[in-house]
Amino acid sequence: MATSRLQMEGDDSVLLHVTHSNLKSFAADVRFSPQMNVEAVKEKLWKKCGTSVNAMALELYDETGSKVAVLSDDTRPLGFYSPFDG
Questions:
Q1: Which domain holds residue 71?
Q2: Which of 1, 69, 70, 75 suits a disulfide with 60, CB 3.0-4.6 Å?
Q3: How many CB atoms lie within 10 A of CB 1?
């Protein structure tokens, strides 16, 4: 398996392209562990974009821009929603 500088072999993290509905100029690629629960994902995003955890509503989209899931249960692990790089 080929590895990149961003992902070590055996690393099961996922690199997601993150956007913000109210900050049109905000876009970032952020690496997450699938074991992180949704609340931990929100806390990590809070540090990137400044939106409070309680004000966030996370949605997962596929590469075509179609909504795949609404991450509404803060206790579920991110991996439950089967995200993949990109």
A1: 37-86
A2: 69
A3: 4
